[in-house]
């Protein structure tokens, strides 16, 4: 069983500021245009999946106390019933976000995620020319800036991510010390689900994601925001595979890229490296 699309994603109007180090601030004020609806990718009696826009929180968070709108609230109001998030997706990350429509299904999906019985595929634009493929096996501690109290002696948790480089480009632009700047389009499949795992793992191999204010490089983030008109974290949850918790059917849910991300791929002539399923212009 595959996904079905309905309406286009909600439009985010952003007031993006450039940080002192040149990075785009991750806690920008983003407001959802009220006449738009969240794009529903799939729905049945037990589950519903949306294409979460970049800049939208899944639910209330102490990290973003100023935010007043959340995916869980917007979806509840849109379909007229309670929803239960089956997993998390960072505020600046776009893509597939799955909800259960009842507590029993939510419990089953939660257990499936804990047992790593799902397959998640992400798309990212990173700095530098990434190796053709590889596995990042690098344990991670709780993110020190998560503002969640943790034990200082807590051991690092296993974290594994598999990646594949889809395309590379060289721009004749001097951003740091070199006369040219290199970038790669990367597909990532996390085997585990630690907080900010993909962002931290790609930084660990010296290929930080463009637009990552915390783990990336400010000058590159600023160049993409101001010169390439793409002021967002270039990380997209493009596909989710799992067995339906009620029917047992094999599920594949795909999320198209937003216009900002897709236009960047076109600028670099990368659009054909991504499956047509993920194109907004299919």
TrEMBL record:
Bias type Low complexity, positions: 1-14
Alphabetical GO biological process terms: enzyme-directed rRNA pseudouridine synthesis; tRNA processing
GO molecular function: RNA binding; tRNA pseudouridine(65) synthase activity
InterPro entries, per database record: PsdUridine_synth_cat_dom_sf (IPR020103), PsdUridine_synth_RluA-like_CS (IPR006224), PsdUridine_synth_RluC/D (IPR006225), PsdUridine_synth_RsuA/RluA (IPR006145), RluA_PseudoU_synthase (IPR050188)
Keyword Isomerase: yes
Function (record text): Responsible for synthesis of pseudouridine from uracil-65 in transfer RNAs.
Name this protein carries in UniProt: Pseudouridine synthase
Taxonomic lineage from the root: Bacteria, Pseudomonadati, Pseudomonadota, Gammaproteobacteria, Cellvibrionales
């Amino acid at each position: 069983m595959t996904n079905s699309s309905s309406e286009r994603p909600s439009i985010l109007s952003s007031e993006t500021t450039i940080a002192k180090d040149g990075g785009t601030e991750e806690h920008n004020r983003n407001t959802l245009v009220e006449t738009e609806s969240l794009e529903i990718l799939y729905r049945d009696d037990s589950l519903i999946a949306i294409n979460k826009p970049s800049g939208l929180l899944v639910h209330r968070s102490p990290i973003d106390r100023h935010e007043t709108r959340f995916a869980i609230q917007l979806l509840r109001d849109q379909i007229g019933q309670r929803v239960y998030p089956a997993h998390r997706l960072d505020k600046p990350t776009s893509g597939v976000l799955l909800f259960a429509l009842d507590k029993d299904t939510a419990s089953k999906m939660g257990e499936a995620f804990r047992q790593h019985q799902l397959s998640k595929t992400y798309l990212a634009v990173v700095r530098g020319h990434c190796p053709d493929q590889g596995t990042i096996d690098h344990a991670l501690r709780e993110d020190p800036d998560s503002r969640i109290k943790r034990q200082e002696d807590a051991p690092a948790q296993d974290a594994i991510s598999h990646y594949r480089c889809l395309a590379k480009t060289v721009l004749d632009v001097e951003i740091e010390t070199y006369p040219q700047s290199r970038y790669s389009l990367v597909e990532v499949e996390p085997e585990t689900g630690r907080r900010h795992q993909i962002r931290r793992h790609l930084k660990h191999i010296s290929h930080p994601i463009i637009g990552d204010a915390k783990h990336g490089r400010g000058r590159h983030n600023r160049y993409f925001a101001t010169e390439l008109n793409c002021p967002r974290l270039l990380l997209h949850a493009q596909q989710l595979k799992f067995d339906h918790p009620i029917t047992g059917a094999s599920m594949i849910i795909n999320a198209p890229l937003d216009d900002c991300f897709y236009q960047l791929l076109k600028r670099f002539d990368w659009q054909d490296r991504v499956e047509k399923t993920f194109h907004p212009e299919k």
